[in-house]
Amino acid sequence: MALAYNHEEITARELKPALYELDGISREAIEAHYKLYQGYVAKRNEILTKLDGVDLTSANQVYSEVRALKVDFTFAVGGIKNHELYFEHLGGNGGDPGGLFGDLVKRDFGSVADWKADLKATGMGGRGWAWTAYDWDESRLFNYIGDAQNTFAVWNATPLVALDVYEHAYFMDFATDRGAYIDKFFDNLDYAVVEDWVQKYGIRK
Ligand SMILES: [Fe+2]
Fold first, then answer.
1. Is 108:205 a contact under the CB 8 Å cutoff?
2. How far is the CA of 135 from the centre of ligand 1 (A)?
3. Would you say 37 and 12 are in contact if contact means Cβ atoms under 8 Å apart?
4. pLDDT (tens digit, 9 = 90+) per residue, 153-203?
């Protein structure tokens, strides 16, 4: 019996050229993210192969192995999803979001400035990530905090902005000034990409 029935390998997406020309966020920093991202893709494939090979007839000790593989799987998949969001929505000119996303931000946070202040504070407090996500059960946006690639995901919420605050994201360009990095993150957001996601997912006011 296989624990990873019919799994397929995935490959790392290519980086779009605009990521190498960000304002204040260097090519080296993007490459650091990308190297990690490639590692998460490889890890995800490797874990599924290992799960496929787990021998369930060897009784209890196998469950600690399953546990380790399944926990590592969430970390690898989180690292993939988080970075794919990060790469895809950078490369723009920042400013204030318009469209439905802009409307949601103003409705759910009071103003664009308040939304940015909330996400920035969340990113300053988090160890790995901060996200703006749409909660389908409450039909509204929240800013969530993440300490790692696999914490603290909330069910039935779709991330629309993914702010990487791991040290590799800012240390090269901003040393210990994480706040300056977060300001630059906002300046490089492509809100057209975020709005496309909002439309594609069918989010409504
Ligand atoms: Fe990263």
1. no
2. 24
3. yes
4. 999 999 999 999 999 999 999 999 999 999 999 999 999 999 999 999 999
What's the gap in Å between 151 CA and the centre of ligand 1? 14
Torsions phi, psi for 135 (to 5 deg)? -90, 115
- Please state the φ and ψ torsions of residue 151, each to the nearest 5 degrees: -135, 145
Contact 140, 100 (CB under 8 A): no
pLDDT given for residue 183 in this prediction:
98
Return residues with CB closer than 5 A to ligand 1 (ion): 33, 164
Q: What are the pLDDT digits (tens) for 117-126? A: 999 999 999 9
Which spans in the chain are helix H? 27-52, 61-88, 99-109, 112-125, 167-174, 178-187, 191-201
Is pLDDT at 45 greater than 70 in this prediction? yes
Please give the distance of CA 184 from its chain centroid, rounded to a whole number.
17
The one-letter amino acid at 35 = K
**CA 106 – ligand 1 centroid, Å:** 28
Angle at 131 between CA 126 and CA 137, to 5 degrees: 125
Question: How many angstroms does the Cα of residue 54 sit away from the middle of ligand 1?
Answer: 31
Q: Tell me the CA–centroid distance for residue 50 and ligand 1, in Å.
A: 25
